[in-house]
């Protein structure tokens, strides 16, 4: 490792950042992370994690801030922010003026939907897929409610597995059906890789259809940067937000929010509104921050209230770490995607089940994999088969996940989907195939315990408390 660099007030260049040593993927990579050796983390996709040296770099910035809060918060921070915003833009092939940093993908989705001025004719619709991330669906519902339903949601029901071309056809049909009913399909929200189930969506094709149909595209890339290849110049969506604290190894919470210059007039305010907002009526409101030469859009997001934003200014360090230690984005994505595919198939073989994928295997072209669990839904006990009553399905899934995480010390997601029990697992650079195989045996035992009704003995997971 390179020598520790002590930062001083006014020294805002990262050009002297240390050099990192190359490390092989798999268990050797664990030495760089803070993960407890007794904890097997197959759920990287939920909350991410970051290398120890990135943690240390963030603490340097925190110490620098405390050594002179006014100097850092008013002057140095903004110089650091510009460097890191530019680094984030470069990794997705975007102009820097189209990128800002926000706390998370949910904030980005909220920012877009709360800024759009909906038509008073009451015909505007927000199109979304049924397996949208729950917080984003609640945002859609809230925006409709808060605007007295002059805008309304339209759901697309997808039953997986589905081929990409079928999903794209369904999407276009939904837009056309909206118009046939006299509605105005104003904006569509969809994922790069959905959360539950964790599947790669054909977001490139969905974005293309939006352009052809004149519908605004809002891409929820919570599982995006560092997970799948993203190129804004080629993709060219209307709005895109992607967490970088999940797959890019940046401390929580940090996300890239992309709005092309042509659409920035629609995003009048950050969330929350702060000093960068430019009112159309009152213009003499005091701004305590130094003058800036950036655009109104960029200025709106530079300071949105006092909080610790040092996670925003280690993005460049995380990217450098990935290049030097891991060999860059392509190497990381190739390893984690391949491991997820092979690991999922190994788990399915041990469980005697299957992974969730289509015939062209595009759904698993990412670092998440979903495996069917050998636990059936039945109102009567089936001899030789682990079963749970339908009314207890959610409670059983919650109990299994809680027990696996807190007792077995395996980070994993267990959920109920399309009438069946599934687990979602993440491929990651510090994991190997053996981690998936060991987890499969733990899952098999957990399904047996659930089939015996053990979860009903745990009060908060019983019927009526799921």
Automatic annotation (TrEMBL):
The keyword Ion transport does not apply. InterPro entries: Aminotrans_V_dom, PyrdxlP-dep_Trfase, PyrdxlP-dep_Trfase_major. Pfam families: Aminotran_5. Gene3D superfamilies: Type I PLP-dependent aspartate aminotransferase-like (Major domain). Residues 76-362 form the Aminotransferase class V domain. Keywords: Pyridoxal phosphate. It comes from the Eukaryota. This is Related to isopenicillin N epimerase. It comes from Phialocephala subalpina.
């Amino acid at each position: 490792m390179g020598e520790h660099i002590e930062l001083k007030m006014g020294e805002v260049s990262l050009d002297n950042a240390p050099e990192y040593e190359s490390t092989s993927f798999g268990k050797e990579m664990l030495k760089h992370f803070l993960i407890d050796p007794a904890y097997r983390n197959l759920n990287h996709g939920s909350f991410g994690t970051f290398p120890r040296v990135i943690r240390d770099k963030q603490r340097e910035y925190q110490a620098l801030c405390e050594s002179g809060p006014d100097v850092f918060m008013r002057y140095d921070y903004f110089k650091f922010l510009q460097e890191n915003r530019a680094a984030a833009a470069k990794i997705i092939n975007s102009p820097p003026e189209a990128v800002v940093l926000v706390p998370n993908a949910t904030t980005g989705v909220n920012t877009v939907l709360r800024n759009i001025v909906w038509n008073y004719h009451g015909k505007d619709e927000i199109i979304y897929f049924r397996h949208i991330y729950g917080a984003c669906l609640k945002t859609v519902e809230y925006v409709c409610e808060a605007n007295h339903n002059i805008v309304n949601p339209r759901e697309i029901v997808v039953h997986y597995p589905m081929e990409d071309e079928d999903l794209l056809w369904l999407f276009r049909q939904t837009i056309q059906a909206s118009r046939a009913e006299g509605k105005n399909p104003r904006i569509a929200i969809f994922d790069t890789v959905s959360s539950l189930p964790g599947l790669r969506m054909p977001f490139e094709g969905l974005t293309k259809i939006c352009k052809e149909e004149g519908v605004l595209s809002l891409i929820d890339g919570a599982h995006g940067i560092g997970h799948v290849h993203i190129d804004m110049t080629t993709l060219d969506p209307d709005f895109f937000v992607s967490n970088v604290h999940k797959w890019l190894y940046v401390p929580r919470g940090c996300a890239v929010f992309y709005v092309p210059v042509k659409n920035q007039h629609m995003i009048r305010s950050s969330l929350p509104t702060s000093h960068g907002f430019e009112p159309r009526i009152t213009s003499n409101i005091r701004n305590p921050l130094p003058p800036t030469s950036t655009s109104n859009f960029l200025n709106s997001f530079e300071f949105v209230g006092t909080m610790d934003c040092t996670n925003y200014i280690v993005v460049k360090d995380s990217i450098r770490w990935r290049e030097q230690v891991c060999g860059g984005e392509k190497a990381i994505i190739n390893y984690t995607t391949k491991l997820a595919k092979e690991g999922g198939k190994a788990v399915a073989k041990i469980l005697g089940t299957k992974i969730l994928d289509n015939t062209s295997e595009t759904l698993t072209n990412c670092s998440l994999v979903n495996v069917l669990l050998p636990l059936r839904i039945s109102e009567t006990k089936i001899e030789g088969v682990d079963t749970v009553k339908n009314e207890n399905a959610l409670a059983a899934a919650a109990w299994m996940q809680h027990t696996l995480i807190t007792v077995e010390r395996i980070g994993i997601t267990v959920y109920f989907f399309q009438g069946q029990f599934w687990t979602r697992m993440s491929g990651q650079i510090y994991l190997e195939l053996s981690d998936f195989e060991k987890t499969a045996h733990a899952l098999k035992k957990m399904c047996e315990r659930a089939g015996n009704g053990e979860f009903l003995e745990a009060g908060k997971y019983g019927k009526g408390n799921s």
